[in-house]
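Sample entry (380 residues):
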Amino acid sequence: MPLTGDLAVYVHWPFCVSKCPYCDFNSHVRADIDEGAWRDALLADLAHEAAATSGRAVGSIFFGGGTPSLMVPATVAAVIDAVAGHWRLTDGCEIALEANPSSVEAARFAGFAHAGVNRVSLGLQALDDAALRQLGRPHDLAEGLAALDVAQAHFPRVSFDLIYDRPGQTLAAWEAELTRALAFGTGHLSLYGLTIEPGTRFATLHAKGELIMAGEDASADLFDLTARLTTAAGVPAYEVSNHAAPGAASRHNLSYWTYGDYVGVGPGAHGRRQGEATVRHKKPENWVSAVAAHGHGIAATASLDAATRGREALMMGLRLADGIDAATFAARTGQTLADAVDPRRLALLVELGFVASDDAGLRLTATGRPLLNAVLAELV
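Predicted structure, serialized as tokens:
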């Protein structure tokens, strides 16, 4: 595969203080963590990926989780220094870290900034104490807003997450909450409709009839309201759940959505590099053991043929408001858009007004955007 674009680096820290009932991410609660040993394992895993991608430039580093703000700043600094030593960092390289807004973690923000972090994504999740309790969050609203103030004082770029379409949430309540959120002045917001993920506590409650979700029409109304309010505030959706002012989009996530190469280290991390997929051991202890035994935490690798790359790029790229650029798609998958989609199904979706297609590329219309999954089921 030809090399196109800068490399992105993802670092997974799998530990949390508690497991949220809606979360299906690879996160774990552990009483004791030997952070020095974990730092050494991450650095070894990075070195392995560097050997496989030598000569590349890195455009973004993302610390995800789990709760990476539980790391001490020295660990974050060591990882950033290692990435800079293995690869060349581009000018303006985005170095982002997910954080939970407890007061203890917020006190570390100065250390993260000194280490080189220049973007923080804060997991506020709600601006209401009752909703935070419902979501199983370990912080209250006062803590969340205090952490946001600290983040805005230390980092040039700040984003925060909110979950809407919560059980019992009305249009008026979400309008008030989102209006308040938009007044905080961050250039980026991630706004997620609550979904019931298999294996979560919410899935168990939902199956028992103890957690009642809104119907499709109510969910669509909340999605439309979100689009109207964010657009009016100057932070329109550039992806299904992500909203940004001009120039404030997440560069790291754009690498995923435009099917750029990325490496992933840490438990359960995935990677896509030079036509090959990698996945690390998911359980933290198994990953650490694998790194000790082999110098990396990879559980499996697979070569991706052009058809598979095309399907993956379609699934990622149609999430973007700008859609898929035909030239970039061809360069990164080895397949043209015309080869990747069924022309009859595409023609029907265009006729229905869900998709726009031309020589420049493929994108969802405003009508089709809320129906992303259904459109993908037809195209992919």
